[in-house]
Structures are given as C-alpha cells and as structure tokens.
C-alpha cells in the first residue's frame, strides 16, 4: 500500500450529501477483473452524458479541478454497497484524501486498507473549505496525517484518526504487510508443527 504522510494538492468541491458508491463507480464497471484502470470511470454518470461526452458543468471536468488531490464532499460519503472499486476509482483518478462531515463505515474501512485518507471535520469547516475551493479554483490544501491537520491558506483544522489506522497509513501497511511483520513468529510456529499435519512445504512429489 502506498504510504500516506503529507499530501498537498488542488481541492475539488463536491458538496452533495449521501454520495453512494454506485455514484462513485457505477455497477457496470464491477465486471472488470483488474484492480487498475478505474480512474476514468470515477463518477461516470455525472462526468459523461449518454454519448460518452464530458458534461462541462461537472466539477472534475473543469480546470484546474481535473488535477484535484483533495475532494471535499457532503455528509454520509460512500454509503450504499461495500464495493472496494469506489476507493480504487478515487485513488486512480488522483484523489488522496476525502474530507466530509461523515462517512459510511464500510467505505471508510475500505479506504484505510487502500491508502486513501478519510478526514472527518465539522460541517461548518467542510462548507468553508468547499466555498474557498469554489471561489478560488486551483487553491491547494495540505493534509498532514502526522500532524493530523488540514491547512488551506490561513485555515487550519485538526482531525481525529484511529492510532492503528494512522500507523498503517504512515507505514504503507495493508493486511498482507501487517502479516509479514510477524513472519519470524510464523516461521517458528510452522517449524514446530508435527510431521503428520498437513504442510504445503511437504507436498509429496508426483509420479516421475
């Protein structure tokens, strides 16, 4: 997992409430078997019309928001189904942090496992950040996980984060990385297994 420590970039305002995962990445793209290439389909039905042409009024189709690294959204972001693809699409578009007053629990869990930071701030703060991004297109914010702050110009807000999640994000540890931290203990345990127990390392050779 790519570590998240301190990210700075353009802020895109998308101040809608209850943005669900089917809006983030519509269901027709779940047929894909790859874990990459989802960025172009982020918010597909909002970004493109039925012919596939870009909708010029959608924020991520406008300069300089096309280069957004921070998304500011409304309450209950990521509700709906538990698809990981929503996180993949945001990350592969270039979004490194989503700031909102609240998040759906499953989305927030998926985001943490993929290196996408979810920052929960008071609604007043979120509204102020979104307004600034609308008034000053291209304005950048800095999201500092180590300091647990969001800074945009003279505005600075602190945010809470689970200490275990913070460590995983800072060190780039997904579930596999966490397991590999204990590889010495795993090897010791496996070395003490009785010979009669199944062991993939002792698979008998097949016929010559």
DSSP, total strands: 7
How far is it from the N-terminal to the C-terminal residue, by CA?
42 Å
DSSP helix fraction:
25-40%
Unreliable runs, pLDDT <50, ≥5 residues? none
Output the helix-strand order.
EHHEHEHEHEEEHHH
Tell me the fraction of residues in β-strands, as a range: 15-25%
Structural class by helix and strand composition: alpha/beta
Q: Give the C-alpha Rg.
A: 21 Å
Number of helical stretches of at least 4 residues: 8
Biggest pleated-sheet summary:
7 strands, mixed
Calculate the mean pLDDT score and round it: 92
The backbone outline, from C-alpha atoms, is globular
Strand order of the largest sheet: 4-3-2-1-5-6-7
Walk me through this protein's architecture.
With 208 residues, the protein is of the alpha/beta class. It contains eight helices and seven strands. A seven-stranded mixed sheet has the order 4-3-2-1-5-6-7. Helix 3 crosses helix 4. The radius of gyration is 21 Å and the shape is globular.
């Amino acid at each position: 997992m790519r570590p998240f420590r301190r990210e700075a970039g353009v802020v895109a305002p998308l101040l809608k409430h209850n943005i669900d995962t089917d809006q983030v990445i519509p269901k027709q793209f779940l047929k894909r078997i790859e874990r990459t290439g989802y960025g172009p389909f982020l918010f597909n039905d909002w970004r493109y019309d039925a012919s596939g042409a870009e909708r010029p009024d959608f924020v991520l189709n406008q300069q300089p928001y096309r280069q957004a690294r921070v998304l500011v959204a409304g309450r209950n972001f990521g509700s709906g189904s538990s698809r990981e693809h929503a996180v993949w699409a945001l990350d592969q578009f270039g979004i490194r942090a989503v700031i909102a007053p609240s998040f759906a629990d499953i989305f927030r869990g998926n985001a943490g496992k993929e290196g996408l930071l979810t920052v929960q701030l008071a609604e007043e703060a979120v509204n102020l950040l979104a307004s600034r991004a609308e008034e000053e297109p291209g304005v950048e914010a800095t999201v500092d996980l180590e300091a647990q702050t969001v800074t945009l110009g003279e505005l600075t807000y602190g945010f809470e984060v689970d200490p275990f999640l913070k460590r995983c994000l800072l060190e780039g540890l997904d579930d596999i990385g966490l397991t590999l931290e204990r590889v010495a203990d795993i090897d010791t345990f496996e070395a003490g297994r009785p010979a009669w127990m199944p062991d993939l390392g002792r698979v008998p050779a097949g016929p010559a």
